Structure formats: structure tokens, C-alpha cells
Amino acid sequence: MANIQQVAKQAGVSVATVSRVLNGQNKVALKTKQKVEEAIKDLNYEPSMLGRNLRNSESRIVLILIPAISNPFYFEIIKGIENMALSQNYSILLCETDSKPEKEDIYFDLVRKKMADGIISMDPAVNVETLKELAGKYAIIQCSEYGGDIGIPYVTIDNEEASYRAVKHLIQIGHRKIALMNTDEKFLYARERKSGYQRALAEYGIPVIEDYMLYTQHLGFEQGQQAMKKILALPDRPTAVFAVSDLLAIGALKEINAAGLHVPNDMAVVGFDKIDFSNMTNPTLTTIAQPMYKMGTVAAGMLIDLIRGEQVDSVILEHELIIRESTSG
Amino acid sequence: MANIQQVAKQAGVSVATVSRVLNGQNKVALKTKQKVEEAIKDLNYEPSMLGRNLRNSESRIVLILIPAISNPFYFEIIKGIENMALSQNYSILLCETDSKPEKEDIYFDLVRKKMADGIISMDPAVNVETLKELAGKYAIIQCSEYGGDIGIPYVTIDNEEASYRAVKHLIQIGHRKIALMNTDEKFLYARERKSGYQRALAEYGIPVIEDYMLYTQHLGFEQGQQAMKKILALPDRPTAVFAVSDLLAIGALKEINAAGLHVPNDMAVVGFDKIDFSNMTNPTLTTIAQPMYKMGTVAAGMLIDLIRGEQVDSVILEHELIIRESTSG
DNA sequence: CTGAAAGCGCTAACAG
DNA sequence: CTGTTAGCGCTTTCAG
């Protein structure tokens, strides 16, 4: 566990010189440089980031806040963030908040205590007030989920438009009785997706039926099953359902199946997110693809700019409708 | 961004005293303590972990090495690790290695450079040599996947026995033609699970048929489909298959379904890991449950002991066979 | 091109 | 019970 002093001594130079060859910015005579490098090798020296970070008042760590690590929706985004971060010599701390303020706070403390240089928040249930307050002092980006224009830069897709296209697709293949499996409207994206759903119906002169709009507490498989049960029990049963998450849609699929009905003949299904499993179901799931990976790299890039003190603007990325078996017999 | 000096000045005490109330170990007069706490509040002071960590030569960060973040197998383990780590004031850095030495090395560097205090490795493809070398200088635990008794403490289950029980279950419900969907035998657990498979067959006097043992490169859904295709094409077709991962088994399920066959009547299926999705398939999947969460807490506990310089021993945890629809008509 | 020295923010002897 | 002081390991002026 050699330190920079010992290297300096061994090489017969000052610590400043060792530091210079370590960072490669300043000019060092070739001969001196070689001496130092030899000493480094001899002593098996590894520079300590603890020392460097304290000196530079940075940690080179960024936090990613997600509600649950098991949610497949985040995988590609995280990969994007990670790759961008690594390329700029940042490491990422993946923080599962369980959407609980207490856990959130543990991680917020990390940035308050300088153990993290910034935060990418993907938790829709994050405490917006705390976030706003933190954003005043620290670098923060909202990714995918965001609380609206609250002065914190975000990267996301146009949820209203995506939802509109999904529903329009269902209408165009002949459906007029279309259910919406949405989540709690306290989330902005839930409101936006509902709005897109209504716009599509309106455009084709289809009335909005309250009973066709379901709300689930979470975006999980079980919630999808339960909601589908309710839909199937409706007196004037819909012939299609648009779920605002793939997991919801997959739960619906299973329930339709269990009821002895056929997808898409008896009930067409559209999901949202294009998670890996959406391709493993039977039938495969029509869904909205978000440019996850890119969203991650963009968010990470924005955050690093913010850390550097640069000005950053919010970004809206493109999405795509992926038509698969659950809407095409 | 006040520092400890300013707090000391404001409170009219020395930095040592501030440090004492911060850490609460040493006795400080109540009155002094109150003065300090007031100053802390006044200045909105947050102690910097950068300073503290450098002084204490620790980072209070532990690394978790996993091949892919999207593998549901690891979710509960990670949760276990995280909760135990948080309770001891450690944060976890989740590192996706993609089973690539280059990426591994980026993360190994973090412990070499003192940005991490230890590693929990769950990557079966990890470079055992590098790991052994690192284990000489740093705290390292192997969790779930391990390279055998190479002197690095591990926590795992008895893979041979688990496999044995799974196959025995299939035999007991009447199967004698049982395929094994295994992965590359370079992995210890693959060899162990094969061995359990063979022991069960031997116990019932069933000959081992080479053609019934398949090997896939990865433990994914597609590999399960492909392997199942081969099994279905076998001249003397098996009536049951034991797959060493749920994802493999789920792929098999889909393929059997696509072939118009029925599970479990035409083909019984057993998986391994009890991932969440194993309960969402149709039919639900019989599988081996590992005590994931506990495995995580135990691994984290061991690692922290190791960091503290204590002696730790390897642990073998219990497993359980979960019988569901894919083996019970 | 190189060295001396200050200091990032904190903790822990040591002395009182 | 409290203050003084010496670093933890590194980077960066400032001189030379």
C-alpha cells in the first residue's frame, strides 16, 4: 500500500512530480517520467482516490434513483447511463428507493455529504419538494419520469403522443371499444397518457366511457390481472385494452388466457415500454418502445455537464410503436 | 457549504469537540454539545465524507459484481446485501461486468484505488486468478456463484443436492425419460447440478442418456427455446426436462406450447431459481427456490466482518423445491 | 522542468 | 471534559 511520498522518494523526485506524471497534464522530462514510472511499478503503487477526491472536492460518483431494481423498464436506461458515466470516469451508485422517503433520504444524504456529485432521478414518486431544494445546491437530472417543469432539467418522451398513437393503432385495426389500464393520476405521465388516449378517441368520434378507464396502484403483473378481471366483467365488454406498462399488459394477457379468450381475436392488447419479456409472452406484445439506452446516455451527459457547471436544457426523445402478435392475428 | 472549522468557530469550541459531537462516542458536556448542534443547524453544516473517509482510510462503499443487471436471479440477493450494508452505513456500487474482463477491471480498480472497501462477486465468469490475487489484499466474498474452494469465503446452496431433489421429484411423479438443460460445464454449479441429476437417475436405476443432456451458452430465454427444439426433435422423446435456470425453463415452456404440446401432460418442466416471472407463466413453473434475500444479508455480513479484519467462514444455505403447475396436472 | 509548501475536511492521540 | 496538533494522500500554486 505505497503512497505518493514513497514513490517520490524511490524515484528521487518530489511528490509534485509524481503527481504530474500521474495526471499527464504538465510537462515532465522524459527521463524523470521514466524514473517515476519505474518506481510506481516497483512499489506496486495505486493512487488513492480518497486523497485525490478530497483535494479536488469531488467524488466522481453519481446516484441513480429508481423505485425498484427489479423493474425491467430501467435496465437499458441504466446501461446507457453507466456507459456514458464510465467513459467520463464516473461510477454509478444504483439506489433503490422503494418509493419511500426514508430510503430516498439516505441517498440524498450521500450528495449532501459529498459522497456523490449528482443525481439522476427516475423515481416518479420522488418527493418533488426535496428534489427542488436539492437541485438548488447540487446537480440533478430527471430521467423518463419527471414532475413537470419544476426547474430541474429532464429527458423524457412525449407520453401524450405515444399514448395517442397506440390507441389510434387499435382504432385503425377496427376497435372502437378500447379500455385504458392506467395508473394513479398523481403521476404526470399517467395524466399525459390518459390525455393521448382521449385525443385518439375524440379524433374518431368515439365517446369516452368512464368504466373503460381503470386505475392501478402499481404497474405490476398482478395489478394487470386484477384490472383485466374487472374489464372482462364489464357488461359491454371492450375488444381491446391499452395498458400503460408491459407488466400490466402481460398480467392482462394471462387473465384473458385464463378466461378462455383469444388474443387478439377476442381482445387486443397494447403495452408500453418494450421490456425484454414483452417478446417472450404468447402472443408477443404490441408495445411502445422508448429509446431507453439513448435516454440513459443523454441523461448522464446532461448530469455531467451540470456537475461541470454548464447550462443544460431539457430534452424530449422520439418513441416508436412496435406492432406484434397481440394486435395482429 | 460550511466545514467543520466554521462550525467550531461559530460554536466557540475546537474542531475536535465538533468532531466529538458528530460521532457521539466521546463524552461532551451537554451545554457544549448544544452549542455545537446549534451552530451546525445555523450553518446548515453537513460533514464531508470525503474528509472523513480519507482520514479513516475507508470509503464505506462495497462493490457487487454481477454479469447482467437484468438477470432477475440477483434481485433479491441484491436487496439483502443492500439492506445489510445500509444498516452498517455502507453504500453499494452495483457493477455490471457483462462477464467481460475489461469491465471487471474497471471495477477492480475501484478497490485498488481505495474507492471501495470490498467486493461481493456474483459473476460466475469472473477471472478466478485476478480474484485470488485481489483477495490477498482486499476483502472479497463470493456469493451464490463461486469458483470452488480457492481460499475466498463464499455463501451458496448445495447445488448437487438441489438438482438431485428436482430430478427425484420428476421420477417420483412417474417420469423416466428426463432431459437436462444445463449450461457450460466450465461453471462449477453446472458440474454440480449435472452430478445431482445423475445421482437421482442412478438411484432409480435409470441409465444416463447422453442425448438427453443439453448445454447452452447462456441461461436465457432464447437458449431455452433452442434447446427445447432439439429435445423435441429427439427420436425417443423425453417426457420431462429439468432446466438449470428459470429463464431456460420459460423458453422451453414457450417452445413446447408452440409445438402444440401440453405441459405437464406431454412434457413436465422444472426450473431453477424461482424468479418472479416463474409464477407468471402459463402454466406456473415448478422450480428450486434459493434463499436469495438471506444469501444477500449473509454475504454482506461476511464482507463487513472481513473488512473489519475478522476471520470468516464459508456458508451453505438451505434450498427448497417449489412444486407448481408445470409438474402437476 | 522541478521542488517546497499549503491545504482539501476530518479524526485521534496527547496534554491539560 | 476540551483544545492543540499532526497527519490521511493528493493537487496545485509559487518560486526557482
From TrEMBL, chains A, B:
Pfam families: LacI, Peripla_BP_1. InterPro entries: Cro/C1-type_HTH, HTH_LacI, Lambda_DNA-bd_dom_sf, Peripla_BP/Lac1_sug-bd_dom, Peripla_BP_I. Keywords: DNA-binding, Transcription, Transcription regulation. It comes from the Bacteria. Residues 5-46 form the HTH cro/C1-type domain. Coiled coil: none annotated. The keyword Transcription regulation applies. CDD domains: HTH_LacI, PBP1_LacI-like. GO terms for molecular function: DNA binding. SMART domains: HTH_LACI. Residues 2-56 form the HTH lacI-type domain. PANTHER family: HTH-TYPE TRANSCRIPTIONAL REGULATOR GALS, LACI-RELATED TRANSCRIPTIONAL REPRESSOR. This is LacI family DNA-binding transcriptional regulator.
